[in-house]
Specification:
297 residues, alpha/beta, 8-stranded parallel beta barrel, elongated, binds 3-methyl-2-oxobutanoic acid
């Protein structure tokens, strides 16, 4: 178990660290909270420097970085490894580590211990976990240990099999009522915020107005207190599919492809490496070398 504290990038003078309190203040002022995912150092630096309020090291990394079909195979060690890299790159954003499948479901004690590892070993400021009423006790105990918790309701990817696939949630009156009850239970348990994923916009807005803590929407409409996207989706970097609620701001996959094919062509046509990419040696040293090895040249 590593106890080394992740080193931080140098802070710019005027920007202050975003905290769970800043989350609440933004909601109270009606200012949208921004959140993006990151899984590595360079992305954390870029997202943080762009000015995002919060970075989620999501277990979506299992799909968009590690290539699994869903998030279920992701382990605590995977999460801590990526959280440490993100913590080394980000100075201002509130850093939230996503608790992976089976790291908080077995017992409340295990949930508290695993949540603690995100802060103690990986430089996170808070954790996120999926579920509502059935997770309220775990949330209560994690919060009691001094660890801020973000909830996650609606399409909860770790329950993909139980939900019968990647389906929107809360679309019937009874499902909507359950979702509201779950959100209220998380708030009562001390969660500082709740992600609402793929739920009807009018339900998300209603829940956002009923809660005193901020909601962060993904596929949940503009009525949430903030928004989150998976950065690889936003950048056009995940090749398998793009959920309909994603807005793509770039096509990085195409940019990468053009760069890689350009490199291959340059190498094959001997345009790379050119003189400026090459280490030189003075003639007299070269001649001395040839003499040394007994080669007349
Ligand atoms: O893992 C993740 O990236 C998430 C977001 C989609 C909220 O949970």
């Amino acid at each position: 178990m590593s106890t080394e504290a992740p080193a931080k990038a140098a802070p710019a003078a005027e920007r202050k660290k975003f905290t769970t309190r800043s989350f609440r203040l933004k909601k109270n002022k009606g200012e949208p909270i921004t959140m993006l995912t990151a899984y590595d150092y360079p992305t954390a630096v870029a997202v943080d420097q762009a000015g995002v309020d919060s970075i989620l090291v999501g277990d979506s990394l299992g799909m968009v970085v590690l290539g699994y079909q869903n998030t279920l195979p992701v382990t605590m060690e995977d999460m801590l490894h990526h959280c440490k890299a993100v913590a080394r790159g980000a100075s201002y954003a509130l850093l939230i580590g996503d608790m992976p499948f089976m790291s908080y479901q077995v017992s409340v004690e295990q949930a508290v211990a695993n949540a603690g590892r995100f802060l103690q070993e990986a430089g996170m400021d808070a954790v996120k976990l999926e579920g509502g009423v059935e997770r309220a006790e775990a949330v209560r105990q994690i919060v009691a240990a001094g660890i801020p918790v973000m909830g996650h309701l609606g399409l909860t990817p770790q329950s993909v099999h139980q939900l019968g696939g990647w389906r929107s949630q809360g679309r019937t009156a009874s499902a909507a009522k359950r979702l509201l009850d779950d959100a209220l239970a998380l708030e009562a348990a001390g969660a500082f915020s709740v992600v609402l994923e793929s739920v009807p916009d009018r339900l998300a807005e209603y829940i956002s107005q009923r809660l005193s803590i901020p909601t962060i929407g993904i596929g949940a409409g503009v009525g949430c207190d903030g928004q989150v996207l998976v950065t690889h989706d936003l950048l056009g970097l995940f090749d398998r599919f793009t959920p309909s609620f994603v807005k793509q701001y770039a096509q990085i996959h195409e940019v990468m492809n053009a760069a890689f094919t350009g490199y291959i062509e340059d190498v094959e046509d001997k345009r790379f490496p050119a003189e400026e990419h090459t280490v030189s040696m003075k003639d007299e040293q070269w001649d001395a070398f040839l003499k040394e090895v007994g080669d007349a040249g």
